[in-house]
Amino acid sequence: MPAGRLPKGEGKAIIFSAPSGAGKSTMVNTLMASPKFNLGFSVSATTRELRGDEVHGESYYFISQEEFTCHIKQNKFVEWEEVYPGLSYGTLCSEVERLWSEGKTPVFDVDVVGGKTLKSVFGDRALAIFVMPPSVEELERRLRFRGTDSEESIAKRIGKASIELKSASSFDVELVNDQLEKAIVNTEKVVAEFLVL
C-alpha cells in the first residue's frame, strides 16, 4: 500500500487493524459512541460502486477511477491501495484535515496493511491498535457464527488472518478481544492515555 503525505495541521490519530472477525468494528463503533472522547470516523475514498443503503460522504467517498488517479498524482492521499485493477481505496488528506479542524481525533478502521502504512505516515502522532482474537480457532468460530461467509471465504479469511497475526508486533498496542466488555475497557484506557485525558 503506497504511502502519501502527512496531512496539514496539528492533531493525533487512532488506527484500528485486525483480522476479519476479531471484533474490530464493534470496538471502533463503541469507542466512537463514547462521550469521553471527541473522535471522528475517517471516511475513506473508493472507486467501487455504492451498495444498498450506503451514503456518499458517510460510508465512503465514491469517486471515479479517473478522479482517484488524479488525486494520487496530486499527492492528496495519506495512503491508498489498488485492491484489484480498477478497484481502489484510500484515505484523503482533506478528510483528516477536516476532522482536525473540527477539533476531533480521526479514527481509522483499516486492514493490517493499511494500519501499518498509516502508522508509518503519522509516526508518534498515531496510536496503532491491533485487535487480536483469543485464537485462530475462536476466529473461525466467530466467522461461522456470522453466517455471511461461504466455506471457501472462511478458509481464505483464516489463511489471511494467520499471516496478519504475525504483524501484530508492528503495532503500538495488541488488545486481545476475548471478552468484548473487557476489551472495550482496555481500549478506552489506552486511548485516554494516548490522548492524555
Protein model, in words:
The protein is 41% helix and 21% strand. The protein is of the alpha/beta class and 197 residues long. It has a single domain, classed as P-loop containing nucleotide triphosphate hydrolases (Rossmann fold). It has a five-stranded parallel beta sheet with strand order 2-7-1-8-9, sandwiched between helices. A four-stranded mixed beta sheet has the order 4-3-6-5, sandwiched between helices. The two termini are 33 Å apart.
Describe, in short, the structure shown:
The protein is of the alpha/beta class and 197 residues long.
Domain count, please report it.
1
CATH architecture identity = 3-Layer(aba) Sandwich
Using the coordinates shown, work out and report the CATH topology.
Rossmann fold
Query: What does the radius of gyration come to?
Result: 17 Å
Mean pLDDT comes to 89
Number of strands: 9
Strand order within the widest beta sheet: 2-7-1-8-9
Helicity level, as a percent range? 40-55%
The CATH superfamily is known as: P-loop containing nucleotide triphosphate hydrolases
Which consecutive residue ranges, at least 5 long each, have pLDDT under 50?
none
